[in-house]
Amino acid sequence: RCPLVEAAKNGRFNVVAFLSGCEWTVTDPRTEVDHADASQQALVQAAGCGVDDVVEYLLDVAEVTVDGHDSLSGETALTLASSNGHKSTVVLLIDRGAQASSSNVKCMNALALAARDGQWAVVETLLHSGTYVDIVDSEQRTPLMMAASEDHSGIVELLLDSGADLGAEDRQGQTSLSWACLKGRVAIAQYLLDRGAPIDHADKSGKTALDLATLNGNPALVQVRKIIKVIIRYANNIQILNYVFFLTSSYWREER
Predict the structure, then answer these.
(1) Looking at CB atoms within 10 Å, which of 51, 98, 197, 242 has the fewest?
(2) Rounded distance, CA 51 to CA 45, Å?
(3) Domain boundary among 100, 132, 164
(4) Contact 64, 58 (CB under 8 A)
(5) Which pTM does this prediction carry?
(6) At which residues are the ANK repeats (predicted)?
(7) How far apart are CA 30 and CA 83, in angstroms?
(8) pLDDT at 119
């Protein structure tokens, strides 16, 4: 990272202003960045650290694009600010024209990153700004799937109250309930079932929520048992119950 970027991420406004006004000469393109590239990196890193005055200054005077990528991290100002939970920076960037649908180089959008990383206030801000609640990444995963997978119950509730689709499927055919069970998120699984998640849905490999719960294996055995009890509680037909008892009896025999 060049001095301009380091100054920006550490909130050294006067240093940023001084370096931005200097003549910029690149002698070796293999090891040095030009003024425009350095300014874009500085914008993204300042946003990721919540340094709003530097962000606003760079947007006003530098050769930057509000949705441009940092050539090193691959993040945009909005994706990094959202992931790190800087609500005021997110508001500033949106006011300055940042598109909530834009993604980092890994095709992760701001809402998905905020949901994954437990940034409730940023999720709320993005939703209020008009971001589509079921916006997907390159794997067709929704923010609800991200929040369920990472055990962020408050964000799961917020997304569902905002109209998130419980039945949405990613490229593997997995739903939010699938992800909660796969990761051993008992409380999330129960809450999703309370909200009407389909209990007998199978993904593209034929695995149901119960199948995915058992994939946790020995380290999460207690969690698996809890999830199975939850699923049995919600099972409403004899075929599901028969399948539960068949699968669980086989699983416990293997564990012993």
Answers:
(1) 242
(2) 9
(3) 132
(4) yes
(5) 0.83
(6) 73-105, 139-171, 172-204
(7) 30
(8) 98
